[in-house]
Structures are given as C-alpha cells and as structure tokens.
Design a protein that fits this description.
By secondary structure, this protein is mainly α. It has one domain. The chain contains four helices and two strands; from the N terminus they run ββαααα. It has a two-stranded antiparallel sheet.
C-alpha cells in the first residue's frame, strides 16, 4: 500500500496527521439541493403536525451547502402566510 506523508522541508522531520485533499465545489445540475436521511422522513411524517412540516420545508428551502440556515421567523411567516407566533411554536 502506498503511504503519503508530509515532510518539514527545513528539518526533514516527518509530520504527523494526514494529507487532506479538498476539491472545489462542483455545480449541481439540480441547482440548489441537499441530501437527507430517508429513514428520518417516516419519523418526520409520523411525529410533526401540518404547521411544523410547513416550517421545516421552508427551513430546508433556505438550507445552504454547508447546512447553514439564517432566516428570520417573520420571513418564514410571510412566505407561508402564517402568523409569526405559529411559526415560533412550530
């Protein structure tokens, strides 16, 4: 098996750790998308009520590539035509 390592060029010392290869992000042909555990969907369907599912879908719509969501409750309320208190409760 081939072993790849890092060497300090000044001291010649072998550095611990590992070499990480980070590829540039690729554009998806599906535009914006995310990956989700399918087994969790049945749990969501059984345990969340209608408003909770609507708010979850709105949050997932704003989810970015790094799983970061920053959206105000009032924006969700406006988009879903719900009262802000109901969004907060959901």
């Amino acid at each position: 098996m081939r072993r790849v390592t890092q060497i300090d060029q000044e001291s010649g010392e072998e550095l611990g750790g590992f070499v990480a290869v980070i590829r540039p992000k690729q554009k998806s042909s599906f535009q914006r998308h995310f990956t989700m555990n399918q087994a969790a969907l049945i749990t969501i369907a059984n345990e969340l009520n209608h408003d909770q599912i609507r708010v979850l879908m709105a949050l997932l719509a704003d989810l970015d590539y790094e799983n970061y969501i920053q959206v105000a409750q009032i924006d969700i309320a406006d988009a879903l035509k719900m009262q802000k208190t109901n969004v907060s409760r959901a």
